[in-house]
Design brief:
The protein contains six helices and no strands. With 188 residues, the chain is mainly alpha-helical. Helix 2 (33-72) runs antiparallel to helix 3, helix 2 (33-72) crosses helix 4 (109-117) and helix 2 runs antiparallel to helix 5.
Amino acid sequence: MTSVSPEPPPAGGPPVDALLAPGFLEGVESRPMSEVRVLRRRAEQEEVNLSYTRRLLQGRLDIVRRELQRRAEHDGRSLLDLLPEILAEKGRGPAHGLGRHQTVQPASPGDYESWVNGLTPDVDLSAVPELPDADLERAARSLAAAEGSLSERRRGVQQVMDTLAGELARRYRNGEADVAALLADEGR
């Protein structure tokens, strides 16, 4: 009998939950400039964390799917032989990112790797070629579902970032903020 794994926590956990909470942006127009900047940086950090986690997850999903395809097509090459092709994202569609310039790094890479590994607790993905098809298919389903949820949360965080950046831009455009003060703050 197959055991049912507990549902993993949502990607990004409580920090992302807070950003996506309905009231998070309430009253942003009246908050002090410094607070809006802090909120934007916080959202930017969580977006970077989610993007990093998504890349980890997609790498595993690509490998699992390619191994299943290799088996179905009776491809004589080993998974190791196919890794350069997999890593080059051959066959993947165009990128759907928003082309954001990232100025921060993931905060805790080990935590995100643990989260991704926890998505398939009963399937050890360190030996993909040795796993039975049923385990690989279960892992692929779990990873794909998590990727969809993670991507949705990431888009939500990006919308928060955009709202906060828009508010900052509005203040500069309308003369409510001083560029000289910003540069002085940044220089500290």
